[in-house]
Amino acid sequence: MASSCVGGKYTYNFDTGKSLDFGNGRWIFNEVGTNSTANNNKKLYEVSHAKFKRILGDSLIDLTSLRNIALVKPEIEFNPTSLELKKLYVDSQCDFLINIRGNVISNSASSFYTNEQNSNYSTSNMSSVDIKIFDLKTGMLISSSSGQAKSTEQHSVFEKDGKLNWTTRAEPMMIRAAEGLIRKYDKNRRDK
User: Fold this and answer.
1) 30-85: per-residue pLDDT in tens?
2) What integer pLDDT is reported at residue 12 of this predicted model?
3) CA–CA separation, 181 vs 191, rounded Å?
């Protein structure tokens, strides 16, 4: 577990594939999905793509660019079947697929408030991000990881100082969780 100075606590988990070899093959970066606004969807895509681009360089190709040079489906599911992955391998001539999905779990705490607004309560903002990486040739999942972010504020009637408190919104925490998770991929890569 790690804390951020700008708010929130972050936890990361790898179900499988914590250490990957990013030194070989061509990697497809799929469209990113969230249950949040289109703007946050775009921001999560931009940040995640840039972080993976630092790891993979010219070996990373986004889905829009791939559609310009190969006949592939307009959308690739977050959890594609083995047959869909193998067909994507044949159609794209790429080796791996990176899928990212963000999720705002709760966004009930305001950006800031004073403890005079309510005398006794606890509220939190939570979000998560999931990354799945597939080997297209074999049609298998080779890495599954997740990052969770939570910012909680608690107040009681015993606090009388009227301090201004800041709570980090769920959307920025989701993006920072993605950044932290991708940094873990970079840190644990086998091809360094």
Assistant:
1) 999 888 777 778 999 999 999 999 999 999 999 989 998 888 988 899 999 999 99
2) 97
3) 18
CB–CB of 178/99 below 8 Å?
no
- Going by C-alpha positions, the residue among 83, 53, 77, 80 that lies closest to residue 65 is 53
d(CA 41, CA 102): 8
Which of the listed CATH numbers 3.40.50.10070, 3.40.1190.20, 3.90.930.12, 3.40.50.300 matches domain 11-106+126-150+169-187?
A: 3.40.50.10070
Closest CA to 29 of 5, 45, 44: 45
H helical segments located in 57-149: 63-69, 82-92
Neighbours of 127 (CB within 10 A): 31
Enter the tokens of residue 88. Answer: 């994507």
Query: What is the C-alpha to C-alpha distance for residues 67 and 49, in angstroms, rounded to an integer?
Result: 17
